[in-house]
Amino acid sequence: MTAPGEFAEFLPAYLAEVDELLASAQRDLLAVEEAVRRGALQPRAVRELFRALHTIKGLSAMVDVEPIVSLAHWMEASLRVADQAGGRLPESSVEPLVEGLRAIEQRVRQLGAGKPASPAPANLLERLEALGPQVVDAAPRKARAVVLDAEAAFASRLAPSEREQLEGGLADGQRAVRLDFVPSAERAAKGLNINTVREGVARHGDIVKVLPLSGAAAGGASLAFALLLLTSAEDAVLLDVVGGAPATVRSLAAAAPVAPDAASPAPVPTDSALGTPVFEEELEEPEVRRGGGLLRVEVSRLDEAMEWLAALVVNRSRLTRAVAALTAAGAPTRELATILQENGRQLRDLRSAILRLRMVRMGDVLERLPLLVRGLRRTTGKAVRLELEVGDAELDKAVADRLMPALVHLVRNAVDHALELPEERVSAGKPPEGLVRLGCHARSSGQLEITLRDDGRGVDAKAVAKAANAPVPESADGLLDLLCRPGLSTRQEATRTSGRGMGMDIVRRIVVEQLGGELRMETRKGVGTTFTLRVPLTVTLVDAIVFECAGLKYAVAVGTVEELIDVDALKVVRPAGADGLGLVERRGAAVPLVSLERLLERTAPAQAAGACGTKALIVRQRGEPVAFAVDRLLGQQEIVLRPLEDPLVRVPGVAGATDLGDGQPTLVLDLGALGAARVGRGVGAAQSGGWAS
Predict the structure, then answer these.
(1) What local confidence, expressed as pLDDT, does residue 5 receive?
(2) Where in this chain does the record put each CheW-like domain (predicted)?
(3) What distance separates the 2 farthest-apart alpha carbons in the chain?
(4) What band does 2 get if pLDDT is binned at 50, 70 and 90?
(5) Over residues 101-106, mean pLDDT
(6) Spatial separation of the C-alpha atoms in residues 91 and 126, rounded to whole Å
(7) CB burial class (10 A; 0-12, 13-18, 19+) of residue 277?
(8) Paired residues of 534 in beta bridges
(9) Residue 669: which of 549, 551, 538, 581 has the closest Cα?
(10) Which helix (H) or strand (E) holds 68?
């Protein structure tokens, strides 16, 4: 059965669980591949990968998704052999496993879209089935000079991968030790328990296993914990972490017995060893549960909570207007005003709490980029290293879902277009491996700034201009405008990764039009290119400045406004030939002054020429300050931003609409995008840019 109709009620939970397991499996598989490339072992990653596939198979069998069961089964079988062989996987096994994970992911997406899972590809199943013998052949053949002290290490209670990890560490010259911790009421009072000890010891080494020991222990206790670890720390340091005596440290190294025939191979796991009762018990050993302490909630429920909050925000605006009307009529409203203020504080707290629920870590959002780069390495033949510097940055899930396709396009372009082939890089004096670095951090203005930097060849302005049949641009902004033209590509033929000329157009539409953010670029020939994206952390509830222009009310997000200034018409300078644009002085510097009334075409150009409002909002447009003159500032309030979904009414520079509490729709403007769309590159962009060809 491939369409689990009778299990429909379990499907959302199944999909969410498998999605998490796939993300974990992809991380572990990439770690295994990196270790294989270095000739090292990653027994823990192999074991975690095996566990993830084991669980996926079990969950899929429960909801009767046979294609995923088949794929997971053969992957699990080979990984089980690898785990029993100490976490040793041949390099040739990585690609089929990657394809297997991708095939499972595709079928999970099909189920999520309400479609039946397509059958598993027969040739892929055959390749996965053939992995088992390859893994057996990769098992170690030579005995080591140093082995584990079986008694001290409780060898009979170790999984093969754990034993291999300890013995491999010894063979590589590391210290393998057993640290016995004896808990007591006195140590607990000092904050020393097995959990804090694990955290402390983990800072000084790699904990392979923790075993509880019952019976008589040092110090007259009846319980102790043995921590088996690889470490470079001195014994005194480890003992200090666990509170000193009666804790003990002992080495796990022992001399290997002399083999009758040194050339004979070490024992190799065979198929008959698969599924032994002991191993299945190991799978059930208590460990920290995946996602422990977390509650999984459907996004639709969070959206529903946000909608109710939005309704409360609009109602509060109406209530505020009603109280203001009563006050103006002379009614006693002091108590009402006090309640209204308290209500405002409670709404802000509720908004903050719900937004925190919707925030996702950028590290989680970007966790699939390494797999994308891995695929690009294979398809392009380029050596690429991806570095992620995301810290603790978070953003609204709705923003993250919209933003991810833009980041995928930028990373794909960086690898496919920007980075050179290894031999080309070497001849240019660069390391053969190209670098793509993605970093992000939250700004105080409620925005997230993301930078994507590569050390490739830089954008060829002349080639781009030739492809666009346009003059060579004089600034980076002009070059970015050309790159974002729909259908523009410098490639003669489309490849599997790019060349259709849609990538940058999509990136700008997502970042600027859909999210109301900003996209900028800096590029230097032979050095590399940096894209900077600034997007709001959330797009539903925002603090806005409300103002009046040409008799209508408008709103603009506070985070996009740098400053509010008064405009003295007598001090506005209007250069000749500036087409009605003016200049105002701001702390000793001239800032372009744009009449918003004219931009919105609310009056005839002849009437508007030379006229401007008495207030102005200063907004960064392509990195340069631009003042937008308005008639009157009405205040600041929290608004519910409703995007204009209908493409027929979507206008550049209009982020959406809102209800200010008067029951009338009010446009929410994106002044930077509006100015760029209407004024053109002549305003505020003359100084910007940073490319050199």
Answers:
(1) 54
(2) 541-680
(3) 106
(4) very low
(5) 91
(6) 18
(7) exposed
(8) 449, 518
(9) 549
(10) helix 66-84
Which residue is listed with tokens 């319980």? 223
Structure tokens at 593: 């002054």
Residue 653: DSSP 8-state: T
Rounded mean pLDDT, 103-119? 89
Fill in the amino acid letter for 468. Answer: A
Q: What span, in angstroms and rounded, lies between the C-alpha atoms of 225 and 183? A: 8
Which pair of structure tokens corresponds to residue 516?
């109301």
pLDDT digits (tens, 9 = 90+) for 268-305: 444 433 333 333 334 444 344 444 567 777 788 888 88
d(CA 94, CA 129): 13
CB–CB of 396/540 below 8 Å?
Answer: yes
Instruction: State the chain's mean pLDDT as an integer.
Output: 79
Q: And the tokens for 120?
A: 């598993």
- End-to-end Cα distance, the chain: 60
Distance in angstroms (rounded) separating the CA atoms of residues 578 and 14: 62
What pLDDT, in 10s, does the model give residues 413-453? Answer: 899 889 999 999 999 999 999 999 999 988 766 788 999 99
Asked if 370 and 30 count as a contact pair (C-beta separation under 8 A), the reply is yes
d(CA 313, CA 318): 9
Average pLDDT over residues 179-203: 81
10-43 pLDDT tens trace = 777 788 888 888 888 888 888 888 888 777 777 7
Cβ atoms of 206 and 227 within 8 Å: the answer is: no
Q: 430-459 burial string, b = 16+ CB within 10 Å, else e?
A: beeebbbbbbbebeeeebbbbbbbbbbbbb
φ, ψ dihedrals at 609, nearest 5°: -55, 125
**CA–CA distance, 556 with 618 (Å, rounded to integer):** 11
The DSSP call for residue 644 is: -
- Number of Cβ within 10 Å of residue 25's Cβ equals 28
The answer to whether residues 675 and 599 touch, using CB atoms and an 8 Å cutoff, is yes
256, 143 contact by CB (below 8 A): yes
pLDDT for 474-500, tens place per residue?
A: 888 889 988 888 877 666 555 555 555
**How much is the pTM?**
0.64
Write the Ramachandran bin of 372: left for phi over 0, alpha for psi from -120 to 50, otherwise beta.
alpha
Omega of the bond prior to 246 within 30 degrees of 0, cis?
yes
Look at residue 29 and give its three-state secondary structure: helix
Under DSSP, the state recorded for 432 is S
Q: Which two tokens stand for residue 514?
A: 């859909």
* pLDDT class of 411 with cuts at 50, 70, 90: very high
| Structure tokens, 67 | 């294609």
Extract the tokens encoding 657: 């609409």
Residue 649, pLDDT score: 63
Pairwise CA distance, residues 642 & 657, whole Å: 5
Task: Tell how far CA 432 is from the center of its chain.
Answer: 27
Instruction: Kindly report the length of the chain.
Output: 693
Two tokens, residue 10: 């379990």
Integer Cα distance of 25 and 498 in angstroms: 27
Q: How far is CA 236 from CA 197, 247, 541, in A?
A: 15, 11, 55
Measured at the CA of 549, the angle between CA 515 and CA 633, to 5 degrees, comes to 85
